[in-house]
Prior knowledge:
With 271 residues, the chain is an alpha+beta fold. The chain has 3 helices and 12 strands, in the order H-E-E-E-E-E-E-E-E-E-E-E-E-H-H. The protein has helices at 35-51, 189-230, 237-270; strands at residues 68-73, 76-80, 85-87, 89-92, 102-108, 116-122, 124-127, 137-139, 150-152, 161-168, 174-175, 179-185. A 6-stranded mixed beta sheet has the order 2-12-10-5-6-7, with no helix packed on it. A 3-stranded mixed beta sheet has the order 4-1-11, with no helix packed on it. Strands 3-9-8 form a 3-stranded antiparallel beta sheet, with no helix packed on it. Strand 5 and strand 6 (116-122) form a beta hairpin. The longest helix has 42 residues, at 189-230. It is elongated. It starts with 34 loop residues before the first helix and ends with a helix. 10% of the residues are buried. It is a single-pass type I membrane protein. It is found in: Membrane. Residues 1-37 are annotated as: Disordered. The chain crosses the membrane at residues 192-216.
Amino acid sequence: VSAPAGSAPLPAGGAVREDGRSSASGWGVSGKPPRRFWEGKKQEGVRRWLSSHNHHPLGGVGVCIVVSLEIKADAHVRGYVGEKIKLKCTFRSTSSVTDKLTIDWTYRPPSSSRTESIFHYQSFQYPTTAGTFRDRISWVGDVYKGDASISISDPTIRDNGTFSCAVKNPPDVHHNIPLTELTVTERGFGTMLSSVALLSILVFIPSAAVVVLLLVRMGRKSAGLKKRGKSGYKKSSIEVSDDTDQDEDGCMARLCVRCAECLDSDSEEIY
């Protein structure tokens, strides 16, 4: 049995075992290398590849680090015609906020693949100055609190569609892009009726209750006076003394007024 080219030759008189392998080199009778030969070659190839990448800061291992952002937004938002609507968007970044941070809001109408940029932020606010959202987009977020929300004033049914919020804070630039479906409708009669009913509960019903209580109290008082008059009710000594004190107070007041008039008349006669 001869060894393959490039391998150590079998020594003279090398014996072959019963399992077909040479006791000197480990080659089989068929001349094919055993499995451990290929495993050794594989390990040697890996060692060579690592040695050629020793300049990598991670010790020769080629690793691609991807930093990402986490962005959240409401999946569905419902609004009413003429009433301001807030589109909420929040983000969380592993890097500090810098002047390189950018925020972009886009709009896609229903049953359409065309997207429209409606808001851009980079240190300053840049709402759209054209299209259906002209002068109707306002910034209500705070980048230092991870808030990238905007609001739409005077919304109409034509504003229905899909809105997307994209945030980049280098080196955090890879992220998901959440979508928000906006539905604007007219306020129905039932909604208006419920608002009126709530106002009635909060304002008119407590006022009516106070008026009813006052009327009941006055009615009870008048009924008690009538009952006393019919039954020949006599005042107690305390009530009589109270009435006497009141009469005396009235007499004293009238006397003081009379004295003042007399003094005035005397002074006129002197002059």
